[in-house]
Every structure is written in C-alpha cells, then in structure tokens.
C-alpha cells in the first residue's frame, strides 16, 4: 500500500474514501479499471463495509460507475461530463465570488495568499498531488468567504467529480506556470474587492483548463 503524506482520517470510511480518491487522481486506478473489493480491502487493510460505503459516495460523484453483473469500475474521462461540470461551477462560483467580495474579511485574503504559495512550491517540485490539494485549498478559502455553506457543499461535489482532470492538467509544466499567474490575478481582484474582475479571472482560469483538457481528451 502506498503511504499517504497526511494524517489518517478518523474513521475507516473516511480513510478509504480519501485513499480511493487519491488513487484515482494519481492514476493508480485508471479510467475503466474494475474495482475488486476483496483486493482493495486487503490493500487498504479494512473490511468491505467501509469500502462499500465509499463506493456509494464515489458513485454519486461520478468518479466510479456500476455495471450489472460486472461490478464497479473507475469512470472514463468524458469531455461532455467535464463541460457540464465546469458550466455548473461557473454559475455557482460566480454567485459565491460576489458574496465573498461583500462578506469576507482580510483573513480570507491572507489565507488565499498562503495557499497560493503552497501551490507554487508544489508546482516547482512537480508534486502534482500536492499541487492539486493546495489548489483546492486556495479556491475553497475564497468560497468559504461567501458564508454560504450549502452553496459551498454543492461546489465541493463538483470538484470531487473532476479532480482527475486537474491532475492531468497539472502534469504539463506550462499549465502549472499558468495556474500560478492566474491565482495571483484572482488574489489581486479580491484584494481590490472588484467582483467583476474577480469573476472574469475565475472564468478565464476555468476556461484555460477546459481548453487544454479538451485537446487532451480529443487526442484520446
């Protein structure tokens, strides 16, 4: 079993869910690969009960799919799915950005800067998994500033469903550099409390990722 860099989650189900997500993002479990419950339970050192519960959550997120008489397998990457998720994210995150500009304090700005620094350090080290995690922190610091927990939870589900795509995107050095630059623009717009510019920068940030991933998926 591959060791994770973080503290083990407090419950078996949380641990299994975190590990399966990590394995999918890192490509240890590939798109279309069958998920054998006995083998995974042995690998993770757990019973099949928390594994089944984690499967239900991942299926709801669209990260794995169930086929009758065949069982679960990792979902294949889909341009159509990616475009739908990112369009919904655009709508929800635009609302969150406007609210964050009005409601968030300076502590959100400082936390964004700190997370952006983590993204940059991970990018320089070409640590894609760490960059993916730091990037999530950066964006959800901003989203938390909206003080709309239901909205934040909805966006969380969308992010969970597309982490694999971000891992692919960050695999290209030029994309990692672009992410750093775009994060700085997002920080500047938020610091100026300019909601229009913040939304524009967030839109461009997503669009660049979609364009690169579209090219990748079409080559597949």
UniProtKB/TrEMBL annotation:
Sequence ranges assigned to domain HTH gntR-type in this UniProt record: 10-77
UniProt keyword Coiled coil present: no
Pfam families named among the record's database cross-references: FCD, GntR
Gene3D superfamilies linked to this entry: GntR ligand-binding domain-like, Winged helix-like DNA-binding domain superfamily/Winged helix DNA-binding domain
Statement: the UniProt record of this protein carries the keyword Transcription: yes
Record key words, sorted: DNA-binding, Transcription, Transcription regulation
Protein name in UniProt: GntR family transcriptional regulator
């Amino acid at each position: 079993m591959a060791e994770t860099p973080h503290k083990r989650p407090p419950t078996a189900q949380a641990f299994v869910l975190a590990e399966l997500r990590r394995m999918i993002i890192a490509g240890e479990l590939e798109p279309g690969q069958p998920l054998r419950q006995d083998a995974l339970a042995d690998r993770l050192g757990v019973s099949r009960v928390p594994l089944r519960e984690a499967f239900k959550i991942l299926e709801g997120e669209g990260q794995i799919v169930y086929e009758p008489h065949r069982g679960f397998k990792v979902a294949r990457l889909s341009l159509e799915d990616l475009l739908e998720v990112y369009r919904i994210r655009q709508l929800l995150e635009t609302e969150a950005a406007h609210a964050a500009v009005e409601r968030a304090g300076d502590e959100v700005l400082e936390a964004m800067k700190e997370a952006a620094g983590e993204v940059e350090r991970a990018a320089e080290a070409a640590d894609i998994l760490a960059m993916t995690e730091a990037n999530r922190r950066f964006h959800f610091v901003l989203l938390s500033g909206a003080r709309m927990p239901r909205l934040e939870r909805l966006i969380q589900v969308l992010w969970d469903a597309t982490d694999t795509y971000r891992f692919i995107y960050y695999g290209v050095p030029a994309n990692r550099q672009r992410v750093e630059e775009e994060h700085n623009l997002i920080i500047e717009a938020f610091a100026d409390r300019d909601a229009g510019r913040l939304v524009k920068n967030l839109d461009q940030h997503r669009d660049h990722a979609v364009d690169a991933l579209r090219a990748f998926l079409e080559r597949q």
